[in-house]
Task: structure prediction
Amino acid sequence: MPQRLHLEVELPDDVVATLSREEMAAKAKEALVTELLREHHVSQGKAAELLAITRHELFDLMTKYQVPAIDLTPEELRAELDKPFPRL
Result:
């Protein structure tokens, strides 16, 4: 069962004045989920689901946060590239 987590963050007044509480909460969730994705705690599908966005929108977000879409070691990438391409 999902759990709701409430975080408290102290920000300068001039920062708070520029965004609504909803915008700040959305940005905090976006940053947390993309970091969880970077650290392999969630999959791309789960990240998109948590943020209620499409996979295409997630890729845009991953670019914004510099999260690689393909996260393979050079050896893993070589092994994938060496696999025969299936013919339909």
